[in-house]
Amino acid sequence: MTTIDINDLFRKGMELHSITNTAYPLTPTSLREYAVRDERSIQELLEEEYQNMNCLSLYFHVPFCKSKCRFCEYVVVSGKESDLKDEYVNASLKEIDLYSQIIDKNKRILGFDIGGGTPTELGLQRIEKITNKLFNSFNLNNELTWSIETTPYNAVNKSDDLKGIYDLGFHRISMGVQTVNTELLKKMEREGGTLLYQRAVDAIRNAGYKRLNIDLMYGFKEQSVDDFKSTVEYTVSLSPEYITLYEMRYKLTKIASDAFDVTQSKISTQYKIAYEILTQNGYNANYGKNTFSRIKDDHGTSDYLTNRVINATPYLGLGAGAQSFGLNYLAYNQGAATKSIAKYIDHVNSGKFPIQDIYNLPEQEVIAKAVSVMFYFGFIDLVAFRQRFGKELTGKFKDEIEYLKAKDLIMIENDLFYITEKGVANLNGVIPMFYSDRSKTELMNMDIEKLLR
């Protein structure tokens, strides 16, 4: 394999900053050489993986929304499929049965999220049906903080469901505000506005939730620095326990070509201003972390995501388009590519695992996937890495780490590998240092215009 100059790799990562983020692999076809294709081999791989796991987390995907925002990269169905909620839930119960046959009922579950899409689109009764099935099939317990997502519109207009969902055991709720810019909301085909947001928060509080997260997005083409500053300041006034900042990821969205007009400098400035506002108002996070918390010793993320980011804990994704990450495998359910639930329902109803793509990964790829996600917090716990992979990060990536230290992009202190403030501004050049050899080569050969047009 041709040796890649580390400076060239760093520069390429910065050039393709809309691609080299915490999402990995780089493209939907990047890992195809590791694909497992026949049903028997898939079954054997899954059985081996779940037999060898000590613990895992659960994620359930709901692919329904009132409408799909133009910035959305996830599986959200539209048209006639929007009316297939009952068919979808019944199919998902069968998928749960398939996995319950190969996962020990006593296997430790470390987190449980229902995401989307918009989970509250299903209504209380359907959510209860899914939750009860999972509770009876896996070792879920009340010590976990179960988390669910809603939209401002649903929080207001389906407020009666919120209390019932809380009583089911979902004591953390996340709501996407994204922006207060009415013109940007209009372009993204999203409902919003300060009056709606305040009413939504009131409804959530009245339902009993004491752990509310609000999502904000930055890095849009039409979003100025002052725009985002206003959004952050307004969100602070709503007093959620947590605020999460999401940098816009353009690939696989309807506005992918906008990425050409968004500079890394603008993104870094937006984050820096948000960080200053949030920390000055009692929200805690190390520089570079995306989730800010007002609760001491609380990362601000759900148990599912916290374990996924820090410990690279395996997780089982259920539902159309859901992603699963095991000890050595990565899989995407039917719907990930088509944004349709038809094949998902058909596969499950025929007694098959509804898997679109599954990859049996070499260690380099597993580490690249895990480390890319770890940067979501702006640090890597070196003890957690050692426990997960049985080796030292600093030994495996010795040259890359020395390079990053020399450029003042990282620091290591008390078994934590931190991104410095300068490193955060250059994060998209830092992340590729920990890619596999294969993906480093793939990155160097990429043409952004072909990817985003």
Outline the structure in words.
The protein is of the alpha/beta class and 453 residues long. The chain folds into three domains: 1-26 and 379-453, Arc Repressor Mutant, subunit A (Orthogonal Bundle); 32-145 and 302-360, no CATH class; 151-295, 2-Layer Sandwich (Transcription Regulator spoIIAA), CATH 3.30.750. It is 42% helix and 17% strand. An eight-stranded mixed sheet has the order 7-6-5-4-3-2-1-8, sandwiched between helices. The chain has a three-stranded antiparallel sheet with strand order 9-10-11, covered by helices on one side. The chain has a three-stranded antiparallel sheet with strand order 12-14-13. Helix 4 links the parallel strand 2 (108-116) and strand 3 (146-150). Helix 3 packs parallel to helix 4 (124-137), helix 3 (85-100) crosses helix 12 (342-349) and helix 9 (225-237) packs parallel to helix 10 (264-280).
Brief overview:
This protein is an alpha/beta fold and 453 residues long.
The structural class is alpha/beta
Helix content: 40-55%
Number of domains: 3
Largest sheet report: 8 strands, mixed
Molecular shape: globular
Provide key terms for this protein.
20 helices, Arc Repressor Mutant, subunit A, 17% strand, 3 domains, Transcription Regulator spoIIAA, 453 residues, alpha/beta, eight-stranded mixed β-sheet, three-stranded antiparallel β-sheet
What's the layout of helices and strands?
Layout: H1 6-15, H2 39-52, E1 55-62, H3 85-100, E2 108-116, H4 124-137, E3 146-150, H5 152-157, H6 159-168, E4 170-178, H7 182-187, H8 194-206, E5 212-218, H9 225-237, E6 242-247, H10 264-280, E7 291-293, H11 303-311, E8 315-318, E9 323-325, E10 329-333, H12 342-349, E11 355-360, H13 363-374, E12 379-381, H14 382-389, H15 393-396, H16 398-406, E13 410-413, E14 416-419, H17 421-425, H18 427-430, H19 437-444, H20 448-452
Parallel strand pairs: 1-2, 1-8, 2-3, 3-4, 4-5, 5-6
Antiparallel strand pairs: 6-7, 9-10, 10-11, 12-14, 13-14
